[in-house]
Amino acid sequence: MNDNSQIVADKLAILRKSFAKNLPERLDKIRHHWTALQVDWQADVFNELHREVHSLAGASLTYGFVQPGTIARQLEKVILHLTSSPDAEQSQEIVRLLSTLQQAVEQTEKEMSVDF
Predict the structure, then answer these.
(1) Torsion angles phi and psi, residue 86, rounded to 5
(2) What does the H/E/C string look like for the chain?
(3) What is the pTM of this model?
């Protein structure tokens, strides 16, 4: 690898690690929005939930974190079908996906602590 390629690779590794470090905070925001919607369904909170999930899915995949990105994409598909407060089945699916996403984030944290 030449010097420029190594510099780029090093910078990408730093960005990737920084992104991974912020995954728990991003998941907390998603959970916060979901919890708020359970109390009072508001369009602006729903839109923020969708934005956070969509952003997490895309960025995770961009940085090579396939598992959290794929789960976030599944979650996005479920919430996009909501037009108002979810029924029991939809809520259960969202909670299940949030739990699965939590596990993926924790696994990513473990892997990143080994890699760096």
Answers:
(1) -70, 155
(2) CCHHHHHHHHHHHHHHHHHHHHHHHHHHHHHHHHHHHHHCCCHHHHHHHHHHHHHHHHHHHHCCCHHHHHHHHHHHHHHHCCCCCCCHHHHHHHHHHHHHHHHHHHHHHHHHHHHC
(3) 0.89
Q: Mean of the per-residue pLDDT values for the chain?
A: 92
Half-sphere exposure of 111 (CA within 13 A, CB side): 15
Q: Which domains does the chain have, with CATH numbers?
A: 3-115 (1.20.120.160)
98 touches 78 (CB < 8 A): no
Instruction: Give the pLDDT confidence of 10-56 residue by residue, as tens digits.
Output: 888 899 999 999 999 999 999 999 999 999 999 999 999 999 999 99
Which tens digits make up the pLDDT trace of 44-91? 999 999 999 999 999 999 999 999 999 999 999 999 998 788 899 999
